[in-house]
Amino acid sequence: MTRQELVNVLLKRASGKPGTRGEAFAPANIALCKYWGKRDAELNLPVNSSLSISLGKLGTKTVIKFSKTADKIFLNGKPAPKAFAARLSAYLDLFRNEGQFFEVRTKNNIPTAAGLASSASGFAALVKALDQLLGWGFNPRELSMLARIGSGSASRSLYEGFAVWHAGQRADGMDSYAEALNREWPSLRIGILEVSKARKKTGSTEGMNRTSETSELYESWPKQAECDFDELRTAIAAEDFPMLGKTAENNALAMHSTMLAAWPPLCYWKPQSIALMQKVWAAREAGIELYFTMDAGPNLKLLFLKEDQAAVKALFPKVQVVNPWI
Amino acid sequence: MTRQELVNVLLKRASGKPGTRGEAFAPANIALCKYWGKRDAELNLPVNSSLSISLGKLGTKTVIKFSKTADKIFLNGKPAPKAFAARLSAYLDLFRNEGQFFEVRTKNNIPTAAGLASSASGFAALVKALDQLLGWGFNPRELSMLARIGSGSASRSLYEGFAVWHAGQRADGMDSYAEALNREWPSLRIGILEVSKARKKTGSTEGMNRTSETSELYESWPKQAECDFDELRTAIAAEDFPMLGKTAENNALAMHSTMLAAWPPLCYWKPQSIALMQKVWAAREAGIELYFTMDAGPNLKLLFLKEDQAAVKALFPKVQVVNPWI
């Protein structure tokens, strides 16, 4: 099935009428159990289910209107870079009538493409804004599937708080959507440690492909991921923070391990990443309940509880603390 | 079977008479396919076969005599540290008659326990020196098995050049010995990049145990290792350097990957290790046939051919180049 065929199936369910404007915000999300490997590259269907936490107010705000002559794409107030605009217009092709163009104004309050998942919040916000503009009246699951074909992890950015993205089994991907866990954990905090803002040399999709094709250790990944997914759900239900932290950190390190064992080796880490990891491990040995996760990039995202915030800030003065619940 | 029982079986094959002195040198060795995981901890029987290259003149020289009252152990001209002396005396217990003591003078010309495998050359030199002192008249396979129960990788340090250590299948380990490959590759060079001389916090045996017990990705290791072992033998027979380099580097990164995915995470790397790896990858992208391997430590061992030695020295002014063939 092609992406266009999937979109056509969904558009048949649309109920409302087009308006003149859509505006939406979607949060960035950080996976605690990572999306790493595609069972279908065309439809962005994942090998394994994943679980994330959204970053509250950090994310993307997008306004969309119709445009008369051509697509006009703005990023953070300026005409968007070519590659960004081209990717967005290609996505809009899936939805436009003949001769229909869009004006899209999108703003990120997180760094773009530094492993902080701005494509996730970007496609999620775009889909929500499109739903308003075109009057689809879709439910979150349907929006999640549309976001997914823009960027896999965008499926999870439809939601605040914890979200799970079901891998599903169907070839058409109609069972591969995200949904909210609806469990608040008010004391949970995220700390962003930025090692580099630079755009990564190897994008996530290329990284996934190289890993699944060449890394012998990738064979063990799907089993670990499904196991971690279940453990995290259990940890969240029980508010068991050490279990959550351990599982998330181990999952991230296992993902990076599959990359390091690929050929050519894929290493998103910088020397500073190792220094920060070792600082986290030393803090934990000293009794602080502090864990980290990392996406396909050099930055660390700390996981800790509100009561340890002062200790974490003392150890990492540059940390940007995010309260996912506001 | 215990180590003592294995020693007793072998000692029944001894043919000569004790002398008054033994003196032997054994080279350090660097595994191109790593020994990582034990199928029998008592007998140091490995999960997978491994393949190494010995470091020529870098290694351990040991002189052994009888001592009247107690073991006297010297390391690099000074009374050996307690832990070192205790490990050595415990090993000598396997061979001593009642009331028999030894004086052992051992010298390393490589750093001790910085991932440069001085325990490998140490036990290999000791076994060769013991063979002279006690007049066993053992062949290299038998000496290799005795060295193995001192330190697994010592089984390979009995030989110059390339050596293979067969994992074997027998419970008594009598098929788990190393032998020389007897293939010279005169243009092959090793470059040692020392990141740290510090003794590692987690020893290899503890690291292997933690990894095999807790790392989900370790499940894929034995298959990869056996595959790499075969590839390396093919590469050596064909003198195919890119194949040798790629397989060795991938094998080392896969081993470190299994550790990173253990719990607690096991990371022998320092920030400088990542910086050096990235420098190797950049050199390769620039067209230099340069690869690396790493043991359970932060140091890199470069692999390259004689014709690239000047380029490698220009890139890494501190590299210590080893010609394994002299």
Structure commentary:
2 copies of one chain form a homodimer. Chain A is globular. Chain A has helices at 3-11, 82-92, 118-134, 140-150, 204-214, 221-238, 241-260, 271-285, 309-315, and strands at 21-33, 38-40, 45-46, 50-67, 72-75, 78-79, 101-108, 162-165, 178-180, 188-193, 291-293, 300-305, 320-322. In chain A, strand 11 and strand 12 form a beta hairpin. By secondary structure, the first copy, chain A, is of the alpha+beta class. In chain A, strands 1, 4, 5, 6, 7, 8 and 9 form a 7-stranded mixed sheet that branches. A 4-stranded antiparallel sheet of chain A has the order 11-12-10-13. In chain A, strands 2-3 form a two-stranded antiparallel ribbon. Chain A contains 9 helices and 13 strands. The longest helix of chain A has 20 residues, at 241-260. Chain A folds into 2 domains: 3-180, Ribosomal Protein S5, domain 2, CATH 3.30.230; 188-322, GHMP kinase, C-terminal domain (Alpha-Beta Plaits, 2-Layer Sandwich), CATH 3.30.70. Helices cover 37% and strands 23% of the residues of chain A. In chain A, helix 6 runs antiparallel to helix 7. The A-B interface holds A 216-221, 223-224, 227, 246, 249-250, 253-254, 256-258, 260-261, 263-265, 267, 269-275, 277-278, 281 and B 216-221, 223-224, 227, 246, 249-250, 253-254, 256-258, 260-261, 263-265, 267, 269-275, 277-278, 281, 284.
